[in-house]
Structures are given as C-alpha cells and as structure tokens.
C-alpha cells in the first residue's frame, strides 16, 4: 500500500523550523528526524484517533517520550485538527499551550505529559497494562530517542513489558545516531540494539525511519503481533530535510538565525522525493 506523505512531511518540517525560529529556542535536529515516524501514525489508518473526541476510549494512545521533538508533534496535531494552526507560532511563549515539552495541563488533548527523558516507556506500559486489565483493544505507541536508551529506566520498563506480555505496546526508537554534543557511538554505544531488545523478550523490527511505507508495514505488524511487545528501530537522519542541519550534533538544541531560517525554508519549498 503506497503512502505518499511527502507533502505532509515537508509542511511539518516547515512548521517546525518556523516555530523554533520565532521562539528563538528549541530542538530542530531531533524534531526533523522524527517527522515521518509520527506522520505515518497520524496520517494513515494504522493509528486510531478522533481529533473531535480526543479522549475517546477506543482511540490508540501515543506517548512522545523524546518530548523535545514537540515542535514536529504540535504541527501534526494542528494539521489533524486538534487545535488551531495559529497556535504553532506561539511555541515556547509565556502562557502558550505549546510549551517546550508537551504539557497535559496546557494541552489536554494529549495522552500524557513528558519532559525528563527515559520515562515514556514506563508511562506507555502503565497505559497498556490498564487497557489489558479492562479487556480493551487500543494500541499504545511510544517514541524514544536512541540516546534515551542510555537511561536505566528504559531497560526496567523493557523487562516489565516483556514479563507482562504487553503486546499492545509498540516502541519506536528514533535512531539518528546523535545526541546533545556528539555521536551515540562516542558517548555510549547502544549497538547491537537488536540483540539487546531481543534479550529482553521483545519482537524487533528495523526500518528506514524516513520510508513511510516501511513504517506503515512495521506499525501494522506490531498491531497484530501477539505475546510480545514490539520495538521498531527506525534509522533516521538528524535534521532531515535541512542540508546544514543534517547529521550535525550542534543542531540538537539550537534555533536558526534569520539567514539560516530563510535557507531552510527555501530548501523545504524545493525539496524533492
């Protein structure tokens, strides 16, 4: 099944760069790497959601554990109709619903608030276990960064999900290879990731994290896999779509100046598949 989300993803990238530029702060690299991962969920039929009824019990759940990728997530939610597109220009401003990390009190359409890295999978597990106890069918998707795997809580949560056979959990790891100041390999290498997750009792898939068809197939497989939670290791490019940001650790958490902003917007206008 062909899922051509190129135009959608380009617009999300434009929104992301613009909102971070206007805010003067944010995390463009980590947001841009995760665009297809989140867009494939929200803009295909693999993820059940109801923007007009954001807390419908039959909805699937999404936990953005790498909360600093909020600018891209906010754009997706706005384009899905959860709130006005005009709010995107208020990112990180005082009183805005769009804080630097997703805030449930400010934005009640979310499934949870996140901030400190490493906590999202535990939250996803709790939601998934509650759904199983109630014999309800929704899937719980959780997105973490590859550097986030360096948190011990991730592996405690991994063991818990396996022990309790939480096959309604699908974890996506944004494997962009970079973190705040350097490469993952230089700071704390997490490979071989397949073997680590398999040893914790997980069903493991590897995909190109910018291939929306591959992501769709992986999500579909996760929703039907029984007996084990699924982890999708999605290989991505940090700063994807903006040439001077791609694979550059310094763009983990920096806002572009005016010239850099104009260049990024020019590139995202003329980007080709």
Automatic annotation (TrEMBL):
Keywords: Thiamine pyrophosphate. Residues 9-262 form the Transketolase N-terminal domain. The keyword Ribonucleoprotein does not apply. It comes from the Bacteria. CDD domains: TPP_TK. Signal peptide: none annotated. PANTHER family: TRANSKETOLASE N-TERMINAL SECTION-RELATED. This is Transketolase. It comes from Megasphaera elsdenii CAG:570. The lineage of its organism: Bacteria, Bacillati, Bacillota, Negativicutes, Veillonellales.
